[in-house]
């Protein structure tokens, strides 16, 4: 996976987390400001201040759940407010970490699908489905269709994962999705009913993916093939002139 594209979405998530935390700190600080310093108990040797900087400090240590203990709320209502901020800070941290952890399975599913398509292309060659028995080919296409639907759902659930680019073509869905489209076309033109059904199923999954790419990420194209070509170009596995880049 490319280092720079990998950092960009991660940085976006971290930036969004810091922005939310900063807004929360400022908001809670405005709640504390009218109650400083009389509403808080100060440890011995700590100067009693009632300015915005003091309110921001109290809010920051409360949101981060650090709680040094040198400034604590003395009024019952303030105790509840500080506790509520600590809970919200823990929830914010948990949500950020959970998002990062949940994205990795989505990366793996997309990479596995791309790698399976690449292996199939290498094994089947130009003949594609014609090298397989109809029943085997239909089962394989149905499995690919299910995996393709999962990847489409992942892109909708975790938009930022789109911006993670694979440097190796064999693990890149943009560079292998056109082959899946070719297999779907072959199957729909087959004389076998099971293959035709599996081809329609795969084509429907590909059309869903194309709609996600067109609607969520702005890839132009009237047909799914045109959308996939633009997808491949954007992820740098296809040059603007249409030739495939070597990796």
What do you see in this structure?
The protein has helices at 3-32, 52-63, 76-124, 134-157, 173-188, 193-217, 224-234, and strands spanning 40-42, 71-73. The chain folds into 2 domains: 3-95, Helix Hairpins, CATH 1.10.287; 103-234. α5 (173-188) runs antiparallel to α7. It is mainly alpha-helical and 247 residues long. The protein is rod-shaped and about 85 Å long. Mean pLDDT is 85; it is low at 1-8 and 238-247. Strands 1-2 form a two-stranded antiparallel sheet.
* Unreliable residue stretches: 1-8, 238-247
| Distance between the amino and carboxyl termini | 12 Å
What's the story with the biggest beta sheet?
A: 2 strands, antiparallel
Looking across the biggest beta sheet, what order are the strands in? 1-2
- What is the count of distinct domains? 2
The residue fraction in helices comes out at 55-70%
SSE run: HEHEHHHHH
Number of strands: 2
What's the rounded overall pLDDT mean? Answer: 85
Shape: rod-shaped
Going by helix content, strand content and strand pairing, the class is mainly alpha
Strand content: under 5%
Rg measurement, Å: 27 Å
């Amino acid at each position: 996976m490319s280092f720079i594209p990998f950092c960009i979405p991660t940085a976006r998530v971290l930036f969004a987390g810091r922005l939310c935390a900063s807004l929360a700190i400022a908001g809670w600080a405005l709640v504390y400001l009218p109650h400083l310093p009389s509403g808080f108990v100060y440890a011995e040797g700590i100067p009693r201040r009632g300015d915005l900087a003091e309110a921001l400090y109290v809010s920051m240590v409360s949101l981060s759940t650090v709680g040094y203990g040198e400034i604590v709320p003395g009024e019952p209502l303030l105790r509840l407010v500080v506790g509520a901020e600590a809970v919200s800070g823990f929830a914010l941290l948990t949500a950020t970490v959970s998002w990062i952890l949940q994205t990795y399975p989505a990366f793996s599913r997309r990479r596995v699908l791309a790698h399976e398509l690449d292996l199939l292309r290498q094994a089947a060659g130009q003949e594609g489905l014609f090298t397989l028995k109809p029943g085997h080919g239909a089962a394989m296409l149905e499995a690919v269709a299910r995996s393709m639907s999962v990847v489409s759902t992942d892109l909708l659930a975790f938009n930022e994962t789109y911006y993670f680019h694979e440097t190796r073509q064999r693990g890149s869905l943009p560079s292998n999705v056109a082959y899946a489209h070719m297999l779907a076309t072959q199957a729909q033109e087959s004389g076998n009913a099971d293959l035709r059904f599996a081809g329609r199923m795969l084509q429907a999954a590909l059309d869903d993916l194309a709609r996600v790419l067109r609607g969520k990420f702005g890839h132009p194209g009237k047909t799914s093939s045109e959308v996939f070509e633009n997808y491949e170009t954007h992820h740098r596995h296809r040059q603007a002139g249409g030739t495939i880049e070597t990796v």
